[in-house]
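Saturday, quiet lab. Running sequence design on the structure tokens for the scaffold JK sent over.
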């Protein structure tokens, strides 16, 4: 028994349509996989580019300065910690350091002790602690227990060049003027301080940064009484621990 010609044509057409639908579904599936693979490759490429550029991404703060007279606007360059400071800044810190560390007034003793330590290296702070300890007979707290005080007058600052790995070398000539509590005549001593110094960057501790914002550090210090004439007393004091 043979099928009618019209039914045979219909069945052939239906088979062809079903085959085309199956082939179309396979083509769409292959296309979808290709698109997904391309998207994954793009994501991987973006991640690689992001990781590569991540170290370059940072926030760079800057300070804008306006001249009060001319109105000229410029950007203040930031300090990177390695720039050589002019001698005027080093001179200021040397004078401040000697003034604070060598004077004594009982009302300011604690503040001066902490401020002096803000400029010292760790080794010099050990020597400072030993010098100020109550058990030391020559501690300023014991020497000036009677109420006497000492003030400092800077005479000159000289720069002696490079001091090696510990920084640059400088000398400070100054006077230590001792005043007795009874108001008697003042005693003046002339001293020379030989110091090695360097700039290490702003300290992390805010309480130290208010006194020493640029990280000025004394790495070695030696004090010697200046002999001005025959019979003048001679004294030498090292700040090493």
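Result came back. Writing it out in full:
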């Amino acid at each position: 028994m043979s099928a009618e010609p019209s039914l045979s044509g219909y069945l052939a057409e239906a088979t062809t349509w079903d085959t085309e639908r199956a082939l179309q579904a396979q083509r769409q599936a292959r296309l979808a996989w290709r698109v997904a693979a391309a998207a994954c490759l793009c994501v991987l490429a973006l991640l690689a580019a992001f990781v590569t550029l991540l170290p370059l991404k940072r926030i760079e703060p800057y300070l804008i300065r306006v001249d009060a007279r001319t109105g000229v606007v410029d950007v203040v360059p930031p300090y990177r910690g390695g720039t050589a400071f002019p001698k005027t800044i080093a001179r200021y810190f040397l004078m401040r350091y000697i003034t604070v560390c060598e004077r004594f007034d009982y009302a300011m003793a604690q503040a001066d002790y902490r401020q002096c330590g803000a400029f010292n290296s760790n080794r010099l702070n050990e020597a400072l602690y030993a010098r100020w300890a109550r058990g030391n007979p020559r501690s300023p707290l014991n020497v000036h227990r009677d109420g006497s005080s000492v003030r400092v007058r800077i005479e000159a600052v000289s720069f002696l060049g490079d001091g090696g790995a510990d920084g640059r070398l400088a000398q400070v000539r100054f006077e230590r003027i001792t005043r007795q509590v009874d108001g008697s005549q003042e005693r003046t001593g002339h001293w020379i301080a030989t110091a090695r110094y360097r700039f290490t960057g702003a300290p992390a501790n805010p309480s130290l940064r208010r006194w020493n914002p640029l990280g000025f550090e004394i790495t070695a210090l030696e004090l010697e009484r200046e002999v001005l004439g025959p019979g003048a007393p001679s004294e030498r004091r090292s700040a090493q621990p």
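Notes for JK: The mean pLDDT is 82. The helical segments are 5-53, 87-102, 109-119, 122-132, 140-143, 206-209. Ask whether to fix the surface positions before the next round.
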